[in-house]
## 1
Amino acid sequence: MKYEIKVIKDKAYVWIQVYENITVDIYKDFAEKSIQIAKEHRINKYLVDVREARLFSSALDQYRFGYEDMENYSLGKISRIAVLVKESDNSHDFIETIFINAGYSCRLFIDADAAIKWLTK
């Protein structure tokens, strides 16, 4: 399995852990599933841990993911998305920019505690 999705009930967020390098197609797969799970639990916060997963996709694919796919999956603009990345990995930087420009609250973090604090404030 390339990723795992869990609901962290006491903090009210959906946690997605990615275990290997990914493409936008894998991002789409876990995004759709995690948004569906979040809706079932009435949650609008997501912690995406990609510290062990570099992103290998074109800028165009990433753009379509942020602007088209998220709208199709009905990700609410009030959602908060914290993305944990490895300090030396900048492959997810453009996704953050796209999500912010598309009107979502999204931020990259290298520290898990800081990500959770921002996510749950």
## 2
Amino acid sequence: MEIVFESTEDFNRSLARFSGPEQSIITDEVERWVPLLLTEKGFRERRLHQFFQFDLRNNYGSSLYSFIVNYYLRVILTIDEDPLCDRLLITLFDVVESREAAVAYKRVGDSIYRTLIETSLSPKS
């Protein structure tokens, strides 16, 4: 299975706020660990975190995670399997200091799941 990394404009802007060495640490850690986290449960439990589950319609599950880069940095990302193309798509949404991670996680989740959340709350016709 192919692993494909994509990054959003927000991620790129957030990454640019960090120094060159910090940017290298962030990108190196994501590229090195995220694929391994998908196969190694022990690593996954230590480095990937879901602050909470979004209440999505049709029993969809959230693929949004906070990846622990190190003690003070987190990357907000999604991990989605695309079985038709036999690939795993990892989309990077934001990089923040750890103390800001929960707020960033909620903001990104509300943004990407807006349609699924609003649809589940709207009355049936």
